[in-house]
Amino acid sequence: MEINxxxxxxxxxxxxxxxxxxxxxxxxxxAIIAIPxxxxxxxxxxxxxxxxxxxxxxxxxxxxxxxxxxxxxxxSGTLVLGVSAAWLTAMCEFPGRRVFNWALLLxxxxxxxxxxxxxxxxxxxxxxxxxxxxxxxDWGFGDYYFPEIxxxxxxxxxxxxxxxxxxxxxxxxxxxxxxxxxxEASRSLGKGPWKTLFLVALPMAxxxxxxxxxxxxxxxxxxxxxxxYFGVSTFTTGIFRTWYGLGELRxxxxxxxxxxxxxxxLFVLEQYSRxxxxxxxxxxxxKPTRIMLKGWRAGCAFLLALTIVTAGFLLPxxxxxxxxxxxxxxxxxxxxxxxxxxxFTLAAIASTCCLVLALILAYxxxxxxxxxxxxxxxxxSMGYAVPGTVIAVGVLIPFAWMDNRVDALMRxxxxxxxxxxxxxxxxxxxxxxxxxxxxxxxxxxDSGLARIRPSIDESARSLGKGPLQVLQHIHLPMLRGSVAxxxxxxxxxxxxxxxxxxxxRPFNFNTLAVRAYELAxxxxxxxAALPALAIVLIGLLPVTLMTRTSSATAAIxxxxxxxxxxxxx
Amino acid sequence: xxxxxxLQGVAVSYGDYTAAQEVTLSLEQGQIGCLLGPxxxxxxxxxxxxxxxxxxxxxxxKLRGQAISRPGAQLPPEQRKVGMVxxxxxxxxxxxxxxxxxxxxxxxxxKSRAQxxxxxxxxxxxxxxxxxxxHELSGGQQQRVALARALAPNPEIxxxxxxxxxxxxxxxxxxxTEVRQLLKRxxxxxxxxxxxxxxxxxxxxQITLMRDGxxxxxxxxxxxxxxxxxxxxxxxxxxxSIITVSVDxxxxxxxxxxxxxxxHRHWQAGExxxxxxxPDDVEYDDFSSLSLPIVSKSFRGxxxxxxxxxxxGQSVPCxxxxxxxxxxxQTLSVKFNLQxxxxxxxxxxxxx
Lengths: 569, 352
Known about the structure:
The structure holds two protein chains of two kinds.
Chain A: H1 2-42, H2 50-58, H3 60-91, E1 92-93, H4 97-103, H5 112-123, H6 128-137, H7 152-177, H8 180-188, H9 193-222, H10 225-230, H11 235-244, H12 249-279, E2 291-292, H13 295-327, H14 333-367, H15 371-380, H16 388-414, H17 426-450, H18 454-462, H19 467-496, H20 499-504, H21 512-521, H22 525-548, H23 558-568
Parallel strand pairs in A: 1-2
Chain B: E1 5-14, E2 17-27, E3 32-36, H1 43-51, E4 58-63, E5 66-70, E6 73-74, E7 82-85, H2 97-102, H3 110-123, H4 139-151, E8 157-161, H5 169-185, E9 190-194, H6 197-203, E10 206-211, E11 214-219, H7 221-226, H8 231-236, E12 241-247, E13 253-254, E14 272-277, E15 282-284, E16 291-299, E17 303-309, E18 315-321, E19 331-336, E20 342-345, H9 348-351
Parallel strand pairs in B: 3-9, 3-10, 7-8, 8-9
Antiparallel strand pairs in B: 1-2, 1-4, 4-5, 5-6, 10-11, 12-13, 12-14, 14-20, 15-19, 16-17, 16-19, 17-18
Helix pairs in contact in B: 3-4, 5-6
């Protein structure tokens, strides 16, 4: 009896300590991840520098107005493209539907700034289209009107073309999960197919549409490359200019805080829509009967889908390929390889860091399901909503502060100046990537873990394995697929990320994205094609992953997946 | 021609697979029919063909004398004036109860629509929930909304696809009775699809029993139980066993105990027949000289259902009050009391 009591109490003690350390680890992770955003928010409470008044007088109005117009434009653009693509592929049958089902995802591989460079090259005065028009009609300069791509309208078009897949993915899942019976109920109550679409199918997909559009808008707000290249003043370009051009870190942070406010509104909208999706979820009882499109209707559907894919992916990809092959002979191969190596190394480090933290958070949440743990995981995955520019500024401030403290300390005691040890290093950059992309790996690992039934954990534990052994022997082997996916997704996202890298990269350190940006800014579009094409090709990897897995996990992109997962809870 | 609904030689096929064929049945105005059968027998397919969601490959479906389905000529579902209650109720999740019920009333003006919705809600006792959303309602309430929604446009016929299968079993029977009363009171012609005979008995005036896409028997519940047309029907409906009996020299049935002389009918001497024995055909009787060994027993609350062995190795069911508690291996005194003698020819295959 006596012995028994002792054993029990040590076990309890042991368990208590184990859970404490997991919890501490999770909270610490969440706290560190939250630092950049907290610093940005806190900057609102600081003194406003004279620069701020200057901004207020001159450009702030433009930033707000352009950002709003951009959101309005990209919102409508992605809505129309995404919903019609989803409706065609989920609810109708027409020749080529199966191919378009995945082909419509291809534009996801195309970063907005790259499609912007490509279209600019194609549509410029000296580009192939205008040249062809001039020679065909024998026009000269100024003889004709041609829309200017480097404008707000152009930016809206470019962003809509590559961001509509967010809407498409979510709405397609929503459509295909709609109970056929509900649509049939509408038919039997006297509404024809079109009325059923507008009265039942679309309203039921409303939460998915809202969630998809808010995700697209978050990306649009985060975009720096496109608006910068097109000379459209928005918050992101403003933040960059305030920091880079004026050297005003605090004013940049305050601008970033305003951008965060926009993002926050979208975030709330997205969360709200996601909650509502649960109510709108019907169990699928029967395979949906697709509307058979025939004759000219089928032709229109085919042409529409083809146009979207061509404009969003095929055409720019072909243009990039043709430029790249033109310049291949004169390319500095070893220089390019250095670029590739440094980009890949950076992306590999960042994705590994994300994965480790994601495993800690996801596993901790599973081990000790509690409100505190859930919140920690939640806070750690806020980054997906925060634009890279904002995170970069938020990382720069604490790192610079630490550098100054170290420098002062060293000078005081050893009389040596250390200069900037941290802020100009890869450490700052990797930290910023982790903040921004942790959610990507966390959600992938999370949903992988969710597929492992708790009874498996319990049986392993009852067979005498501790939490770490369960992780090692049961979960990690079973999670291999999710782990690989998490690594790949962050890897690709890091390769594509432009503004964070641009602001935080160490001196003379270049990545594919930054190089493409620099060359394009110098109007050397054809030279920018090779790094751009490399990014696009690697960007295709996650897209193929999405198309390979069945429609149930169609929303494998974690940002979309997060929605999908909640939706099934 | 007078019937509300008439199916004449209807077949439904998907490619090579024929889900239903040679279905002929009709339903009078105000009658409640039922398509009953094991899963996969084609009953739901048939219902969906009536609703216009499946195309017929042969035969015609007529509603009030007007052909609504013929091979190659289908009236779209929305023009059929057919109301449907779906298995999962299929309520519109984005509309509240009131707007769900009013959904099919597009032809009415706002005022009469509101009035009709009110009327339907009071019919199903859900006035208090007019503003609620489907996810806020219980299963039984959702079902009533689905019923009200389907009935609101005054359909020529109401189709119910397994309407009780998503509900708790205690609720089921009660709701089935309520639904029947409601339909009868309002003179609604309806067809119910179910695999549950108790539901069919509780709701329907006329049951169409189906098997492998074909109609096996169309009859009243009473006749289906007491006068099954085949061994399949006898086995599917109610409990009981079918035993092989021989006809003795005097033309009486004999199961080896010589106790089946009921003086009803006489059969050809020497013939071998299959006899349906329901649990209530074998009565518990302490004074009976016949006692049979108990092979198995199962407790049914108010009753025990015993399985009793016959000398020739076959067994018959026997229902007793549950205070008659014997163990397996003991014997039970019984007497045979066959009010309805149901026999089938011995060649089993010839029947089905």
